Amino acid sequence: MSIISSNIKFLRKKKGLTQQQFADQVGIKRSLVGAYEEERAEPKYELLKVIASFFEISLDDFIKETINDKWAPAPKGNLRILSISVDKDDNENIELVPMKASAGYLNGYADPEYVAQLPKFYLPMFKQGTFRAFEIKGDSMLPLVSGTIIIGEYMENWGDVKPAETYVIISKSDGVVYKRIGNKFKENKKLKLISDNPVYEPYDINGEDILEIWKAKAYISTHMPLPTPEPTMESLTTMMAQMQRSISKLQQGSN
After folding, report:
1. Residue (of 185, 204, 169) closest to 97 by Cα position
2. What is the pTM for the complete model shown?
3. Residues 6 or more apart from 161 whose CB is under 8 A from it?
4. From CA 217, how far away is CA 134, in angstroms rounded?
5. Tens digits of per-residue pLDDT, 219-236?
6. Distance (Å, whole) CA 20 – CA 11
């Protein structure tokens, strides 16, 4: 049984409602309730929002979490509200934030009108969750080159951010950056951002500076990957220099 169908059935029964009573309260036909619970159909996006609101849980939890007697909602301290757009079939769009629009995104990310004006597309493999695409700049995340488009899934609860995985971070100071995370997120603490290109040193960003976090799920690029080159004396020297700087910082921190 799918997550959505099992959640509808469990939550309806927990409220002590028959299929007809539940249908009457959310404004649909009883036959649709049966179809949803038996996986013969799936609610459209707008109806999913109505059902989640009726059961007083977040839409994100409703479509992603298996809700049962042991389930408990995540702490709400890091929850964020996101503006989205949908197509004529109520499918959530994947809005694209081009490189040239990244500066404007800092001002318009929470504005529904701004988000609606962004280029958008739809990928059927991304059915559950909210996704956005960002065109990255620079060579700090090689082998992904400048101009690569990262498709990220919206992180509603930043406590779910996992070290060593890659994310698009939207912050007041750095704008849109794509980095690997170096530590768990803690409220009002710093988050370490790491580049895959060893030429760039890791750096910290203040928690209160962060606006949005998107977990990287896929990328689109017109550059096909090349064979891994043999290390050159220059690249080895650069890596050794970075290691020495990192060791020096660790030694200074322990003194």
Report:
1. 169
2. 0.60
3. 155, 167, 181, 184, 185, 191, 213, 215
4. 12
5. 999 887 777 667 777 777
6. 14
